[in-house]
TrEMBL record:
SUPFAM superfamilies: MoeA C-terminal domain-like, MoeA N-terminal region -like, Molybdenum cofactor biosynthesis proteins
Organism field: Mesoterricola silvestris
Database matches in InterPro entries: MoaB/Mog-like_dom_sf (IPR036425), MoaB/Mog_dom (IPR001453), MoeA-like (IPR038987), MoeA_C_domain_IV (IPR005111), MoeA_C_domain_IV_sf (IPR036688), MoeA_linker/N (IPR005110), MoeA_linker/N_sf (IPR036135)
CDD domains with a match to the protein in the record: MoeA
Annotated GO MF terms: metal ion binding; molybdopterin molybdotransferase activity
Known function: Catalyzes the insertion of molybdate into adenylated molybdopterin with the concomitant release of AMP.
Keywords assigned by UniProt, alphabetized: Magnesium, Metal-binding, Molybdenum, Molybdenum cofactor biosynthesis, Transferase
Protein name listed in UniProt: Molybdopterin molybdenumtransferase
Assigned EC number: 2.10.1.1
Family the entry assigns: Belongs to the MoeA family.
GO cellular component terms, A-Z: cytosol
């Protein structure tokens, strides 16, 4: 059976960055630039005052007084030139008048009628912001692949880039399956449970940067499953089916996909939970078959779908921080040792790791307590307290 590392590699081979698109700057936050973005103009576009105060010639400054010849507000288009032996009142952001080479802040002078009384001689160039000192014209401000944070968005506005070439957010359809499921707002009848996974999975899509498309839930009937899948493929870049992917009598996802010509990349991974995980490709779109157990569903999203979504968005860092931790309590494997196991754990200070409660794949509340997954490779049947484990830190941003 395929191992965890091999399966992840296959996922990342198939998840390729989406075609670039130009989006309005207001929608660009969190997206990766699809190409290098150059500044066509310098920032600031003209030399201007950094303070409210007085513009003068440094040669005229020094203890003494100068007549105030006028006022230069911010936004003034035709700024008067500064004559020798004069000062001009000037506001922050206003163009520096020709002839002036220093701005004295208002707080450093005294004003008496039409005269400004100067203290000590200021340094030439003080409080003047030079054209292009922030960003020179022609420079690369954002390299291709960089993620646009609020600062990048602001800089792009400053250089006159109201639309940005980016990798778009993947639209991810989520289809839950199961005759036993009812909506979160419904009271389950005998044998029924609420559909938790439509919510956890759509929330994970959103948290990963994708656009969740929750689809109507599907009962375990071949025709209904087929219709739902083909409908979702028409609207999404990625389809997540949930449940019905194992070997139960009513697990139709796999058969329906393959009857409709989907290419199987893999089905079944030597891991726990989540062994029935599958990946198919149809019409260039990825279809993940995710098992229905609520913990398995979330873990499979976290370990496989989230990196795929990020790669489609053009992100370079696909994976959560991986650190070593030390188990505070012993752990014994149940079942096949040729599997990777993902334990829900709480990673505390000093790398100490405690289990986040019972580890059954239906114990969804354990996912609330856990801040990390301990990834136990195939092999050991048990780990003793003090054993070192590899952690994937769930609450921290991707770093590699
Ligand atoms: P399945 O993968 O369809 O065999 O489902 C495995 C287990 O997960 C069963 O106990 C299901 O009732 C449960 N399950 C499947 N889908 C969901 C869902 N959307 N929300 C909550 N539990 C689910
Ligand atoms: Mg089911």
């Amino acid at each position: 059976m395929l191992g965890y590392g091999e399966a992840l590699k296959l996922v990342l081979e198939r998840a390729v960055p989406l075609a670039p698109r130009r989006v309005p700057l207001m929608e660009a936050l969190g997206l990766a630039a699809a190409e290098d973005i150059l500044a066509r103009e310098p920032v600031p576009p003209f030399t201007n005052s950094a303070m409210d105060g007085f513009a003068l010639r440094a040669a005229d400054a020094g203890p003494g007084r100068l007549p105030v010849a006028g006022t230069v507000p911010a936004g003034m288009a035709e700024v008067p030139a500064l004559g020798p032996g004069e000062a001009l009142r000037i506001m922050t952001g206003a163009p520096v008048p020709a002839g002036a080479d220093v701005i004295l802040p208002l707080e450093h002078v005294r004003v008496e009628g039409d005269w400004v009384i100067l203290p000590e001689a200021p340094r030439r160039g003080a409080n003047i912001r030079l054209q292009g000192e922030d960003i020179p014209a022609g420079g690369r401000v954002v390299p291709a692949g960089a993620v646009l944070r609020p600062a990048e968005v602001g800089v792009l506005a400053a250089i006159g880039c109201p639309e940005v070439p980016v990798r778009p957010r993947p639209r991810v359809a989520v289809i839950t399956t199961g005759n036993e499921l009812v909506d979160a707002g419904d009271r389950p009848g005998p044998g029924q449970i609420r559909d938790a996974n439509i919510h956890s999975l759509c929330a994970q899509v959103l948290a990963a940067g994708g656009v969740p498309l929750p689809r109507p839930r599907v009962e375990d009937r071949r025709e209904t499953v087929a219709r739902a899948l083909l409908g979702a493929l028409g609207e999404a870049d990625v389809v997540l089916t949930n449940g019905g992917i194992s070997v139960g009598d009513f697990d139709y996802i796999k058969a329906v996909l393959e009857d409709n010509g989907a290419e199987r990349v893999f089905w079944k991974v030597a891991q726990k939970p989540g062994s029935p995980l599958g990946l198919w490709v149809l019409g260039g779109k990825l279809i993940f078959g995710i098992p229905g157990n609520p913990v398995a569903a979330m873990l499979m999203f976290e370990e496989y779908v989230r990196p795929a979504v990020r790669r489609m968005m053009g992100y370079r860092n696909l994976h959560r921080p991986a650190r070593a931790g030390v188990l505070e309590e012993g752990w014994t494997r149940s079942g096949d040792a040729r599997r990777t196991e993902f334990l829900r754990v709480v990673a505390g200070p000093g790398g100490r790791v405690a289990l986040a409660g019972p580890q059954g794949s239906g114990i969804l509340s354990g996912m609330m307590r856990a801040n990390a997954l301990a990834v136990i490779p195939e092999g050991p049947m048990a780990l003793e307290a003090g054993a070192e484990v590899l952690l994937h830190l769930l609450d921290e941003a991707e770093d590699h």
